[in-house]
Every structure is written in C-alpha cells, then in structure tokens.
Design brief:
Elements (H helix, E strand, L loop, with lengths): L9 E5 L3 H7 L4 H21 L4 E8 L7 H17 L1 H6 L3 E5 L7 H14 L6 E8 L1 H17 L10 H5 L12 E4 L18 E4 L9 H12 L11
Parallel strand pairs: 1-2, 1-5, 2-4, 3-4, 5-6
Helix pairs in contact: 1-2, 2-3, 3-5
C-alpha cells in the first residue's frame, strides 16, 4: 500500500513538555520522560501504519548535556532500554532505524544497542525512524562547512562549485528528504536548534499538548491541519 498523498511524507517532531507534564502532577521530571516513551511507541506505530516515508524524533539535543547529571544519566539508561524493548515493535511494523547527530559521543552502552537495532532493521522496507541524538542544527551546519573547506583545501572541489545542493550533501541528513511537517508539542513557539537547514519550507504545527499526552487523535489533528495548507515553496499556486 502507499501513503495517502494528503499526508506528509516526512514528519519531524520536537517532543517537548515532559518536565512540565510531570511537574503539574507533582512528579519528578524523570517521570515525564518515562511517560513520554509510550507516546513515542504509539506515534511511531501510527506513522508506520500510515506508510509515511520517515519520522524524525528530537530525542536528545546537544544542549541537553547541560541538564542535571542525574537526569542525563537517566535519559541515557532509558534510551538503552527503549532500543532493546522496541526491537519487536520495529520488526513488526517493518521500520528502519537510523540516527543523526554526534552519536560517537554517547555512552558506549547506548552506542552498542543503537548499532544492534540499526543493523537488525536495515533490511526493513517500511518507514524510516530517525532518532536525533546529541544533535544540534548549528553544529550540523558548522560541520558541513568544515568538511567543504577541507575539500576545497585538498583541491577536491572548487569554490565556485559550492551551492545549496553540494552543501546539503555534507549535512548529517544528506540521505534523507527534508521534513514536510514539523510538529512541536508543549506549546513553545521555537525550533530549538532542530534541523535548521532542513525545515526551511516545512509546515509548522504547534500544539499545547505535552508530549506524554500526545496520541493518535492529536496526530490526526496535525495531519488534518497540514492537509489544508497550500505549499508554495516561495512560488505561487496557479
């Protein structure tokens, strides 16, 4: 089966509001992160069943290392548990797992499970689930600029050959389509250093719903809103 063309092919989500969700219930912050895992499971499953091409989740930003050590350690352990526990779900829904970001800086116990999950799912033919881990949009652009500068220095490319297409081929997302729809939960009106280059023409959808409460009806609402948009990419609809 094919995706309904009224749906976005690539959805990116800033999963915000875990801490506020927990605080409103009198819980410590990590309880919000735990609750958010079920949203990841349900939203990933629903997107796969709708035959989306890709779902990219902002799972851990480069700035998240600034959080209290206890919280960061918990997030890393939770990520390891998620990777292990979700392998049957990934297989059942024919999902390919990938990642963007400086994953080499993650703890070894996370990198090991990430490598296993990616290897086991590499031949799946359904939706790609991309986890943005230790990811920062500015760092991605700087890294691309450094790679290009080095290739110019080595004589591999000429300065006048540098254009948007060449630059894009040096981004972490070089083998991925740009997002059609960027969803942010939790109500904040910012992009938070996420896919700065790639979301240039993405449709933005902000919902006040905290991520642990975000479920299929909320996703459907986002898709219905998207279907009403006219995507002009700087041009005019004739």
């Amino acid at each position: 089966m094919e995706r309904d063309k009224s749906l976005p092919g690539h959805v990116a989500i800033i999963m915000d509001g875990n801490g506020r969700w927990a605080k409103r219930r009198g819980f410590i912050r990590i309880k919000g992160h735990e609750a958010g895992v079920e949203s990841v499971r349900q939203i990933t499953r629903e997107c796969a069943r709708k035959y989306l091409d890709q779902l990219t989740l902002y799972a851990f930003s480069a700035e998240n290392w600034k959080r209290p050590r206890r919280e960061v350690n918990f997030l890393m352990k939770m990520l390891k548990k998620f990777l292990i526990n979700e392998r049957p779900e990934i297989a059942e829904n024919n999902i390919r797992l990938s990642t963007i970001g400086k994953t080499e800086e993650l703890p070894d116990f996370v990198k090991e499970e990430l490598a296993i999950s990616m290897d086991e799912s590499k031949n799946n033919t359904g939706m790609e689930l991309c986890l943005a881990l230790n990811y920062g949009g500015r760092a991605e652009i700087v890294d691309a600029a450094r790679e290009i500068a080095e290739e110019v220095k080595q004589g591999k490319i000429q300065e006048d050959e540098i254009d948007e297409a060449l630059f894009q081929q040096h981004l972490y997302t070089r083998n991925m389509p740009d997002p059609d729809l960027l969803i942010r939960t939790g109500g904040e009106m910012r992009i938070s250093n996420f896919l700065l280059w790639e979301v240039s023409y993405a449709e933005l959808y902000i919902t006040p719903v905290f991520w642990p409460d975000f479920r299929k009806p909320d996703l459907e609402e986002a898709f219905e809103n998207y279907a009403k948009r006219e995507r002009r990419f700087g041009g005019l609809i004739r």
